[in-house]
Write a structure and sequence with these properties.
It is built from four helices and five strands, in the order ααβαββαββ. It has 205 residues and is an alpha/beta fold.
Length: 205
């Protein structure tokens, strides 16, 4: 006996091949609903993808994303304080050679000794007591280019050695030149002699 109430579909001719049509299942007996699950999963995936792509472009959720970034930036700034300024070191006491102006010492001017003038006449006097010594001295200096104006004997006080007299700085160069030539180291400046005068005293060689 069927548990379903009778209806119009139960009135089927006996010769008809269609029997129990109202009891036919819409889903095959072997189907377990996998297709429905796959369909629902694909739809959910599409909805999630659309939300991920479309919603940020519409500005939805922008405030929520900006807040954590700002907080993270503030945390980073507070965690890394700016380094204190390093005080500038004082300049080194030893300055570079290029900073100090190089001043080369100026050469000390050397007074140039005037050259001897051999055209000025020379007087030769003999105070040694040796005859002919004055003439010998005149010939000796004449061989070096000097001019002898006169040769005589010394009439002054006796001398202990040979002396060359000169009058002023103008004759000093001539006196020094004759001193080196004759080997007479003693020079005497005297206004009493008009020209350079060589006096050969005792011991003259």
């Amino acid at each position: 006996m069927s548990q379903y109430p009778r209806d119009e579909f139960d009135k089927v001719p006996e010769t008809s091949t269609r029997q129990g049509v109202h009891r036919e299942r819409l889903i095959p007996a072997r189907s377990s609903g996998i297709g429905l699950i796959i369909t629902v999963g694909v739809l959910a995936l599409l909805v999630g993808l659309a939300a991920y792509v479309v919603l940020p472009r519409l500005g939805i959720g922008a405030d929520g994303n900006a807040t954590p970034v700002a907080a993270e930036t503030e945390a980073t700034d507070s965690a890394s304080p700016s380094a204190p300024a390093t005080p500038s070191s004082p300049p080194s006491p030893s300055a570079s050679p290029s900073a100090v102006p190089s001043s080369s010492p100026e050469p000390t001017p050397v007074e140039s000794t005037p050259a001897a003038d051999k055209t000025q006449p020379v007087v030769v006097l003999n105070a040694s007591g040796i005859s002919g010594l004055g003439a010998g001295i005149s010939a000796r200096i004449g061989a070096e280019g000097w001019i002898t104006s006169s040769v005589g004997n010394w009439a002054g006080a006796p001398l202990q050695g040979s002396v060359i007299f000169y009058n002023g700085e103008a004759q000093r160069a001539n006196a020094e030149e004759l001193s080196a030539l004759l080997g007479i180291p003693t020079l005497s400046e005297s206004p009493e002699f008009a020209t350079v005068t060589v006096v050969a005293g005792p011991g003259f060689q």
